[in-house]
Structure formats: structure tokens, C-alpha cells
Design goal:
It is a single chain. This protein is α+β, with helices and mostly antiparallel strands and 588 residues long. It has three domains: 2-198, Aminohydrolase, N-terminal nucleophile (Ntn) domain (Glutamine Phosphoribosylpyrophosphate, subunit 1, domain 1, 4-Layer Sandwich); 201-355 and 466-542, HUPs (Rossmann fold, 3-Layer(aba) Sandwich), CATH 3.40.50; 543-588, no CATH class. It is built from 21 helices and 17 strands. The protein has helices at residues 57-66, 76-87, 138-144, 153-162, 200-211, 219-234, 249-261, 284-294, 306-318, 327-338, 350-354, 359-371, 379-389, 402-405, 409-417, 431-451, 457-483, 496-507, 528-531, 542-548, 568-578, and strands at 8-13, 20-25, 39-40, 46-54, 97-105, 110-115, 124-127, 132-135, 176-177, 182-187, 190-191, 195-196, 241-244, 267-273, 297-303, 343-345, 488-490. A hairpin with a 5-residue loop joins strand 3 and strand 4 (46-54). The protein is globular, with a radius of gyration of 24 Å. The mean pLDDT is 93.
């Protein structure tokens, strides 16, 4: 855990030795010893260990001081102690930020665990009926010992389906992830079930009604006001804050608003590779144009292709749970630290909030196709036909599942964004593992399907993108990767208050198509070549590793993975699972 907090360490144990709280500190707000953790209240009743940032802590502190609270520090951590004293468990509903914390009440002998609404910060726990353990990383619980590390079928199957382990599963039966927007209580009586205090689906339904109160024609000013508010709060720090700049609409708008809000020019970073020079995949030229327009201090870091193999080995060594993504965040996080940054802003979350992904069009189209398919009751037969002539006709492989899976939003989303398709798993997983894993996932899948039943098509995709892709992959990767470099990445577009303010307008089309209105919120217009640039992703040479590194060649022994049309993201997912010795018995 040291790399998550290299600035200090703390340990506090109760007098009866029944409870211990530990903490590694990455000092961002109140760099003095007054901000050290675990932190205790002056009367000794409360103690807390906390990971993250509470962006509205100044407002909460002012309220608490009016109520008589006396503060000893300037940290957001101390706000948690006073807020719990006043409001109890309801305190979590007043917090705006990214957080995972454990707060002990000595009088009631109760430990409260809580996680932020979107799940930006992780909180893993293990309960064997005798001892309760929790940490920010699975690897920390493994290192502590006495945790059931029996491989979990649900986690393994979910990883192959999505390219990330779906919440609340991990790859181990004895370790679970506290769901986003949830609390959990531990007392002498035992461990409660997680209780959710924030529901994205409920927020979406309410936001649609609230959007009607916003006057027509004021959408741009409304969008700017709320974006700027979030950016200002995310700039709060006692250390310099930089930003990633990819020349996309999200990061460019974010940097522009941060430049308006910051007292001094922002430090921004763009990452590229030597082999991309002169190609459309090179983001540096456009990013430099944006940086000049917005008046920020910019640095383009170009990596030689030879550096990647070394960094990939370090990436694997630090990986907490397997993911088919994250290496791009690893490389830009390393560059940020080398540039002297301790905090960086990221444009993550704009696509989920405003409908920027192709899936917002693809999922409804798949559902429409499924509704009119004559093969709906003969899905297996259609897949068989597809397998024989689809490759010859260059049909997308995922289309084979439209008649069987495409009639529901989760099924259509699986076809649009999944890694492995359900019908492909028997070729790579042992039968019992697949059966038990699918059964374990069924309850979570049913809960998601029920939640989105009353949502409109835009909201359904936004929900699935947020809870499937963003929460389980993008945010989780951002956390463990950045923390492996002792860097805090903040995501102003993934903010519960911002979501509640904007999702209603976005889902009713009042913010235009996708993210088109984002750059209109800036005081300085972006260069036209940025506005007209098609959406691209940061490219890393996964294909080269899969084909040329012998330690990443296990997929070559599996017939289905050798098929020419098979996508590399599936080969990569299989390879990562195969790298884990405890998982190999699950695989064919």
C-alpha cells in the first residue's frame, strides 16, 4: 500500500485490540501533521481512515462550525468526523467527492464503511465470520493473509464477458467490493448487507422531470455553470494540479474551464509514441494547438516503442484485478509524476454523461433489429448459419447473437460493448465454471435490467455505460494505475451533483447531439480542427505483444482464439486470466 500513500503512515488500534485502522497518506489537502490519519475526534469517540477527496468540505465545515463544531485542522478528513457526529449514517448523502472510508464509533461499537456514488474510489472487504478486513486493494487483503482465495467463478466469467471484473465480484470467493453508492455496518452482532444510498437509475428518472423547469434557450449557460462549478471544486488542493490533454472535446473543454478557474496557467500533458508521428493516431499536434489557444503550459511526451515492453511488465506487477484496458493510463500517469505533478484532472466520464459513445446509437439499433428478426425463437440456428457464411460475407461476429440477446437493453449492450460473447465461452471455460459463473452473475444482471425498465433509450445506455464500463473498468483502472505512481487523478465529469444536474437535459436531447455543446461553454473557442475531429481512442500495440511475446501466447493453444476474425481484446482477456496460476484450472 506504500505507493498509494508515500507521504506518511498511520496505525491506530483500540485498547481492547478488537479493531485496527491503518492508513497510507498521499498529502493533497492540509499537508501538515494535523491532516494525518487515522484521525480521531477530540473526545476519542470517533476514528476514521479515509481515501479520496471531499470537494464540498469547505461548505460542510462552515455549516458544522455554525453548529458549534471546533476544527483542529484544515483537512477534509476532519469534516467526516464532525459530520458523522451530527448526522450519523445520513452524512454520506451530503458528501460531494470521491471517497472510501471506515469510521468507528466507540460508543455504539459500530464501524461504518462507505463508498462514493459513482464508485471512483474502491473499498474491498473480506468476512470469514470471525474477522472482518477491508482495504483499497485486493492485493492488500491477499498480503494480509487468512482470506479465502478460492477462485470465484462469477468473477472469472464476468471478466471474460466484459474485460473487467464486475462489481461486487472479485476473482476470489472471500473478497468482495462494496458497491458504489453504498454503506456497510460492522458491529459485535456481525456484518450487515450493503445498503445503497444513491441510485443512478432513480436520479435519471427524477432528473427528466426536473429538466422541464430549465427554460428553453438557457441550456448552454446552464451547462457552463454546472461544469465550471465542478471544475472549480476539483481544483481544490494545497499542491499543484495539472491535467491530461488528448485534444478530444472532453479534455479540451475541461482544460479550458480549469484555465478560466485557476489563478495561474495549468500544466497539461499529452502522451504519444514515436511510431505515431505523422499519423492520425498522434494526438500531440492537435493538443499543442489546443494548449496554445487556451494559454496553458503544455508538454508532449513521446515514448519509444522499446519502452513499452518494460512498462508492460511493471503494469502487470502492479495490476490489482485483471483488465483489458489501463496501460494508457499507466503511461500518462508515469509521465505526470515525472513532470512533477501530484494531482491531475482527467476528462473521463463525458461520453457516459452526454452520449458520446457509438453505443448510444448501436444499442437501440440492435434492439430494433432483434424485434423484427424472424430468428428470435431460433437463436442457436441463426448463430450456426452465421458462423458458416458470416465470415465470408464479412458480417460482424457479434451480430450472430442479435436474435437471442438483442431484444433487451443489457443484451444489446453486451453485443455492442462486451469482450467475449456468451456463446463463445464454452470454447474457453470448463463447463462447471461457466454454469456456476453465469448463475452467480444472473442476480446482478436481473437487478440492472429491473432498474432500467422505466428509463428512456438514452438513459438505458447511459446507465449501462456508467455501471458496466465506466465503473468497473475506467474508474477502477484509473484508481489502481494512478495510485501505483502515487498520483491522484480527479474526474470532474464524474460527479454526483453534476450528474443530477445534467442527465435530464442530456437524455431529452436538449444539449444537442452527444458532446457538441461542450466546447460552446468555453470563453475561448477551440481550434476548428479539434471541433471537427472524429472520436478516437488512445492506441497501444496489444496485437504486437500477443503475437511476439512468448509469455503472452497462451491464446494460441485455443482453437477459437486462433480464428482470423477473432478480436484481440478477447485474446488479451484470455491471456490475462491465464497469467494467474489460480485461474488456469478454469480455462480450457
Amino acid at each position: 500500500m506504500t505507493v498509494r500513500g508515500p507521504d506518511g503512515a498511520g496505525l491506530w488500534v483500540t485498547e481492547d485490540s478488537r479493531l485496527g485502522l491503518g492508513h497510507r497518506r498521499l498529502a493533497i489537502i492540509d499537508l501538515t501533521e494535523a491532516g494525518a490519519q487515522p484521525m480521531r475526534s477530540t473526545d476519542g469517540r470517533y476514528a476514521v481512515t479515509f481515501n479520496g477527496e471531499i470537494y464540498n468540505y469547505a461548505q460542510l465545515r462552515a455549516e458544522l462550525e455554525k453548529d458549534g463544531a471546533i476544527f483542529r485542522s484544515h483537512s477534509d478528513t476532519e469534516v467526516l468526523l464532525h459530520l458523522y457526529r451530527r448526522d450519523g449514517i445520513a452524512m454520506v448523502e451530503k458528501l460531494r467527492g470521491m471517497f472510501a472510508f471506515a469510521l468507528w464509533d466507540a460508543r455504539t461499537r459500530t464501524l461504518l464503511l462507505a463508498r462514493d456514488p459513482h464508485g471512483i474510489k474502491p473499498l474491498y472487504y473480506a468476512d470469514d465470520g470471525k474477522t472482518f478486513r477491508f482495504a483499497s486493494q485486493v492485493s492488500a487483503l491477499k498480503a494480509g493473509g487468512n482470506v479465502n482465495l478460492t477462485p470465484d467463478q462469477g468473477g472469472a466469467v464476468g471478466f471474460l464477458l466484459w474485460g473487467s471484473v464486475p462489481e461486487p465480484f472479485t476473482l476470489y470467493q472471500g473478497i468482495r467490493l462494496l458497491p458504489a453508492g453504498s454503506t456497510l455496518l460492522v458491529s459485535d452482532a456481525g456484518v450487515s448487507s450493503p445498503r445503497r444510498y444513491w441510485s443512478l437509475a432513480a436520479i435519471m428518472q427524477r432528473a427528466t422531470l426536473q429538466a422541464d423547469a430549465i427554460p428553453r434557450g438557457e441550456e448552454r449557460d446552464y451547462l457552463r455553470s454546472h461544469l465550471l462549478d465542478s471544475v472549480k471544486l476539483h481544483l481544490l488542493a494545497d499542491v499543484p494540479v495539472g491535467a491530461f490533454l488528448s485534444a478530444g472535446l472532453d479534455s479540451s473543454t475541461l482544460v479550458g474551464l480549469a484555465r478560466e478557474a485557476a489563478a495561474t496557467p495549468l500544466q497539461t500533458l499529452t502522451l504519444s509514441f514515436d511510431e505515431f508521428v505523422g499519423k492520425g493516431t498522434d494526438e500531440c499536434p492537435l493538443a499543442e494547438d489546443v494548449a496554445q489557444t487556451l494559454d496553458v503550459r503544455h508538454q508532449c511526451i513521446r515514448l519509444a516503442s522499446g519502452e513499452l515492453d518494460h512498462e508492460l511488465d511493471l503494469f502487470f506487477a502492479a495490476m490489482d484485478q485483471p483488465t483489458i484496458d489501463g496501460i494508457n493510463t499507466w503511461l500518462i500517469s508515469r509521465a505526470a509524476v515525472q513532470a512533477g505533478l501530484k494531482v491531475a484532472l482527467s476528462g473521463l466520464g463525458g461520453d457516459e454523461l452526454l452520449g458520446g459513445y457509438a453505443s448510444f446509437k448501436e444499442v437501440p439499433a440492435i434492439m430494433a433489429q432483434a424485434r423484427h428478426s424472424p430468428w428470435r425463437n431460433a437463436g442457436s440456428a441463426y448463430r450456426l448459419i452465421h458462423s458458416h457464411i458470416g465470415t465470408w460475407l464479412k458480417w460482424p461476429p457479434n451480430e450472430a447473437g442479435i436474435p437471442q440477446y438483442g431484444h433487451t437493453p443489457p443484451g444489446a449492450y453486451q453485443l455492442s460493448k462486451g469482450a467475449f460473447m456468451p456463446w463463445e465461452l464454452p470454447a474457453v471455460l470448463a463447463p462447471d465454471v461457466l454454469r456456476l459463473g453465469m448463475n452467480a452473475l444472473a442476480a446482478e444482471d436481473a437487478a440492472h435490467a429491473e432498474e432500467i425498465g422505466a428509463l428512456n433509450p438514452f438513459q438505458q445506455v447511459a446507465y449501462l455505460e456508467s455501471v458496466r464500463y465506466m465503473r468497473n473498468q475506467l474508474l477502477r483502472d484509473t484508481d489502481w494505475v494512478s495510485m501505483a505512481h502515487s498520483l491522484e487523478i480527479r474526474v470532474p465529469l464524474v460527479d454526483s451533483a453534476l450528474t443530477e444536474a445534467l442527465i435530464g437535459l442530456a437524455s431529452t436531447g436538449r444539449l444537442g447531439g452527444g458532446k457538441a455543446m461542450l466546447p460552446q461553454t468555453l470563453a475561448r473557442p477551440l481550434p476548428k480542427n479539434v471541433l471537427n475531429r472524429p472520436k478516437t481512442g488512445f492506441t497501444v500495440p496489444t496485437w504486437r505483444w500477443l503475437r511476439h511475446r512468448t509469455d503472452l501466447s497462451a491464446w494460441k493453444q485455443v482453437p477459437i482464439l486462433r480464428q482470423p476474425h477473432f478480436q484481440d481484446n478477447r485474446r488479451w482477456a484470455y491471456t490475462l486470466l491465464h497469467r494467474m496460476p489460480e485461474m488456469r484450472n478454469f480455462l480450457k
